[in-house]
Amino acid sequence: MVYMEYHTAIIICSAVVVAATITSRRLTALTLAGMIMFAACADDSQTKVQSAGLDSEDPSGESESDVRTDEQSETGTRRNPLTLGSEVVVSEESGSWIVSILDANLDADDVIAAENRLNDLPEDGRRFVLVGVSARFRAPEEAPDSARSLMHDVDFTVAGPSAVGVTFISCETAIPDELNYMAEVFDGGTITGNLCFKVPIGDAIPELLIRVAPPFCLDCSESWYRLSPT
Fold this sequence. Notes:
Layout: H1 2-55, H2 64-73, E1 87-92, E2 95-105, H3 109-115, E3 126-138, E4 147-149, H4 150-153, E5 155-159, E6 166-167, E7 184-186, E8 190-200, E9 209-213, E10 223-226
Antiparallel strand pairs: 1-2, 2-3, 3-8, 4-7, 5-6, 5-9, 9-10
């Protein structure tokens, strides 16, 4: 009797082990099948994404090369500066200035030294540059008798290969035919004269540019000139 019970218990345990083994194998098979299906779906999804990326186009219809070409063709930028004598309009709510860069002397040390015997030469590594400017004021329609000074409405900054801007207040010396940028100008009035910049010698070359723009304005339009004749 004991032998039969023992034998029955062995049979039952063996059946349980077999069933567990079969179940485990089925689960393993199902798991492997699921992993294979997941990998196939992921690969197919990635293929579709890559294909969509290749087939998609810029909504604007412009490629990167088209944008670069437009930037180069636009005049008055650092990439494509204006030539001497060109006119630009700098507009403010208080009126507009029609500005023109007339000429430039990229090595004006001797000229400034001859202007006043008290003038000091620039420190080593610097050079004086003179820029001729013309500016005509146009008053707004709602205030035709108003007057403005150039110093409040227009900023002049030069920049060369160093890409570091230099303002005209850097000279701090007497210069010939200095532009009276502090003068009050009424509608139709024009002022003409020179501005002085003390720039690094490496920047005082034909590639030197000047920017004309409203002061303290990040979103306003700006115009660039090349200071050497083309």
